[in-house]
Write a structure and sequence with these properties.
The complex is a heterotrimer. Chain A is mostly helical. Chain A contains one helix and no strands. Chain B is of the alpha+beta class. The chains are: A mainly alpha, B alpha+beta, C mainly alpha. Chains B and C meet through helix 2, strand 3, strand 4 and strand 5 of B and helix 3, helix 7, helix 8, helix 12 and strand 9 of C.
Chain lengths: ~55, ~90, ~675
């Protein structure tokens, strides 16, 4: 029983992160987590070491 | 002037002034003195146009603020720019 | 309704854009930070009319002539997209230059509102501009703005004026009708007249008490900061201070606390699972997901301090001076000053750095810069640096500083090799860069920057890094028959099997074990993975508070667990930092180089460079510390010789091309 719940939790976490990656990719981000998702279609807007959003 | 062939004698000229101290281009200019630009002598039209939009063209005043590393800090209009010695040589004063 | 923001570089356009849209785009205190246009809706609070207003932030331009690509974007946009109103941001401290562009914008037949920005700075300089008179002469409203301040900044008035002028006719104060665009001389003559016209305006509206060509304290500061010889030690000292605060002092202090929380979370989950749970599954959750991600996220406080300091550094205008100091070296190796900006951007993330190479006109310079930019340690490499500095070098600040300087050295060496291979060593290019005024860095901007990067770090850790760690954990738990590998037989796992062949190649570098090879491989997905994978393969969840770990693992410290000497650790760090970047950055390189030969050459060069640098670090370091050569010296030296030999042949070939070109040019000259 514990194992089933555990497997469920792991699966849930993995699915969550995959879903997040897909969402980020849809926004057109080149690098996952980039704070400039969707600001500009064919460019990263985090032009420098200071990335803001 | 990206396609220019290096002119070794010119690059090799270490002293910035001619023997008689006659100043002809910005690379030989005295620091802190105001000069009037006579001509921008370059084949690179883009660069000339760019300098123009900065306000760097014939008849304008230009001042060398300091020489840093191998760059000249110039004051044109109300801004400071850092230009290199090759570019300074094209500005005839 | 569409509003375009146009103005000279470094006039505060992006700051104004952020202020009116509520977006927080990157702002840098130098020219040319914005490369592509950006859009955002204007804040409701400023926009009382309720009409949706979209603001478009354009790259800075000095004029409408397409000198550099960022300028052509501007002129094209203004001409093609027909905005309803143009907000022309004019730098009040440099009216005479800014108005050139303003008069050109006024000729487009689109209503213009001039935002006289940085008007606060003018008061400090005792410069007085008669706004109403300026507005009258230009024939458009002029609003004083201070986009950096929160209140009394004139933005509301600016937006309401924009709404008012929409649809109005725009008269041009300067008549350029008789200018013949096809005739170069005519244009030049007209432009000169335009400047004359502006001079007249300036004489009427501006009252300057301090002439801008006088020496100021800032100029005196520049003479030291950007000094021929002092410039580099100062840069080193600045970086050392940054790392000293973030890596040696404040960072670990905060990280200790933070890692404590992660550890208690780990313990809590462990307690929840109890002893009954399947060891395989609980290992995936505990060691793979929580441990691996925790190890990466544990560096967050340390990295945040670093981000904050770097943001301050950029905001104050120092980076433009670094560019001036570095220009000399870059020019010797056939790069221009423009190559420095992508590299400084690359310290944040290599991808926008590589993309910023687009502004470099010369193809070879652009490709070389795109190829070399990833050598600058980016944000994702910082946890790796922090890990090794912490574990093997007692959190010394010199480790991080050294990595930046090795990066710069490799870039210069790399550029030298490329310029010789392509046979273009005789070409030169001009360098011009605006030196922005120093300003006191904004704590608020740096804080916002730090928080946003922290958020990005967490998102990355909880997505890509998490998945990779889970996969690594599974791969090391099972063998190819999908049986759980027995304790002590870890070498039979899938992960070990895949990584072992690579590990052989790494023996001459001092770290030829499959665990370290696996971590280096996952690093290509994202560099933070190096930390995560190391945590997973060695079952270490806490890289920060290592004293505790020593107790847990019974006397043997982390360095012992990894089986690395300090020299080998440094070699491993160098290998991870200076081999090719993550795949996303390689993709960006591909896009900007537009040439497969260059791309493959570039990636091969990065591999070779990382390997050779790492080899010398390990072998020479070992020779010095122990008096003997490191393991695998002979095969290593053969491999390295072959690589260097190949590059030398290419350089020789390139030299011949250069000679041929030189001879051709001489012929042409004498003819």
């Amino acid at each position: 029983m514990t194992d089933l719940v555990l497997a469920g939790v792991i699966l849930f976490i993995v699915c969550l992160s995959i879903a997040k990656i897909i969402r980020e990719k849809r926004k057109g981000v080149k690098c996952i987590g980039c704070p400039f998702a969707g600001c500009s279609k064919n460019d990263c807007s985090c032009d420098s070491l200071v990335q803001l959003k | 002037m990206e396609s220019a062939i290096r002119n070794d004698t010119m690059i090799g000229a270490i002293s910035r002034k001619d023997y008689n101290g006659y100043v002809t281009n910005l690379a030989q200019a005295n620091i802190n003195a105001e000069y009037i630009i006579k001509e921008i002598q370059t084949n690179d039209i883009d660069m000339k146009d760019f300098l123009f939009t900065l306000g760097c063209y014939e008849g304008e005043t230009i001042t060398v603020i300091s020489i840093l590393a191998e760059n000249f800090v110039i004051a044109v209009k109300d801004a400071r720019y850092s230009i290199d010695i090759d570019l300074a040589k094209t500005i005839i004063i | 309704m569409k509003v375009a923001l146009a103005g000279n570089p470094n006039s505060g356009k992006t700051t104004l854009f952020n202020a009116i849209t509520g977006k927080i785009e990157h702002v840098g205190n130098w020219a040319g930070v914005t490369i592509e246009k950006k859009e955002g809706d204007i804040k409701k609070a400023l926009n009382v009319t309720g009409v949706t207003m979209t603001a478009v932030d354009l790259p800075g331009a000095y004029s409408m002539s397409p000198f550099t690509s960022e300028e052509s974007v501007t002129s094209e946009f203004v001409k093609n997209e027909n905005p309803d109103v143009i907000i022309n941001i004019v730098d009040a401290t440099n009216l005479s230059r800014s108005l050139f562009f303003t008069t050109q914008l006024l000729e487009l037949d689109i209503p213009v509102v001039v935002a006289l920005n940085k008007s606060d700075l003018n008061k400090k300089k005792k410069t007085d501009i008669q706004v109403s008179q300026l507005s009258e002469i230009l024939g458009c409203p002029v609003i004083e703005t201070v986009s950096t301040s929160m209140s009394g900044n004139g933005l509301e008035k600016l937006i309401s004026t924009v709404v008012e002028v929409k649809g109005q006719e725009q008269k041009a104060p300067f008549d350029a009708k008789n200018m013949d665009l096809s005739n170069k001389e005519s244009v030049a003559a007209s432009d000169k007249k335009r400047y004359e016209f502006i001079k007249e305006i300036i004489a009427r509206v501006e009252n300057k008490q301090i002439h801008s060509n006088r020496q100021t304290k800032q100029d005196a500061a520049d003479r030291i900061i950007a000094h021929k010889w002092l410039g580099i030690p100062i840069f080193a000292a600045v970086m050392w201070v940054v790392f000293s605060i973030s890596q040696t002092h404040l960072g670990p202090l905060l990280a200790d606390v933070f890692v404590g929380w992660i550890d208690s979370f780990y313990g809590w989950v462990q307690g929840m699972l109890g002893v009954g749970a399947s060891p395989v599954l609980s290992a995936i959750l505990l060691d793979g997901i929580i441990g691996g991600v925790g190890a990466v996220v544990g560096f967050l406080p340390l990295i945040m301090v670093l981000f904050f300091l770097l943001a301050l550094l950029e905001d104050c205008g120092y980076m433009a001076r670094v560019a001036v100091v570095m220009d000399r070296f870059f020019k010797r190796v056939g790069l221009s000053g423009k190559s420095i900006i992508p590299m400084i951007i690359g310290t944040g993330c290599a991808i926008p750095g590589v993309m910023a190479t687009r502004t470099i006109k010369n193809e070879r310079q652009r490709r070389t810069t795109a190829m070399l930019t990833p050598f600058m340690p980016c944000g994702a490499k910082l946890p790796v640096i922090a890990l090794f500095a912490g574990l093997f070098f007692n959190d010394a600040a010199w480790v991080g500083t050294l990595m930046y300087f090795i990066g710069i050295a490799i870039i210069i060496l790399g550029a030298l090799i490329v310029v010789r291979i392509t046979g273009e060593k005789n070409k030169r290019s001009f360098f011009i860069m605006e030196l922005p005024e120093y300003r006191f860095p904004s704590i608020k901007r740096a804080t916002v920057s730090m928080l946003s990067r922290a958020k990005a770090f967490i998102i990355k850790a909880s997505t890509i890094i998490l998945l990779c760690n889970a996969i690594v954990q599974i791969m090391q738990t099972f063998n190819w028959q999908f049986q759980v590998v027995a304790e002590g037989a870890e070498n039979t796992s899938i992960l070990a099997n895949i990584a072992t062949p690579f590990a052989f190649l790494l023996i001459p570098l001092g770290f030829g074990v499959w665990q370290l090879a696996a971590a280096a491989i996952t690093g290509f997905i994202a560099k933070e993975n190096v930390v995560g994978t190391l945590a997973v393969v060695y079952s270490i969840t806490n890289f920060i508070d290592t004293e505790e770990l020593v107790l847990v693992s019974g006397g043997s410290d982390v360095a012992g667990i990894m089986g690395l000497t300090s020299v080998a650790a440094l070699s491993y760090l160098i290998f991870n930092l200076f081999t090719p970047p993550c795949f996303a950055a390689i993709g960006a390189m591909n896009a900007e180089m537009e040439n497969k030969k260059w791309l493959f050459g570039g990636v091969a060069f990065q591999f070779g460079m990382g390997y050779v640098a790492s080899f010398f670090t390990y072998q020479i370091g070992t020779l010095i510390t122990t008096g003997e050569l490191g393991s695998g010296f002979l095969p290593g030296v053969i491999l390295v010789t072959v690589m260097i030999g190949y590059v030398v042949t290419l350089v020789r070939k390139g030299d011949k091309i250069a000679e041929a070109k030189m001879a051709e040019a001489k012929m042409a000259l004498s003819a």
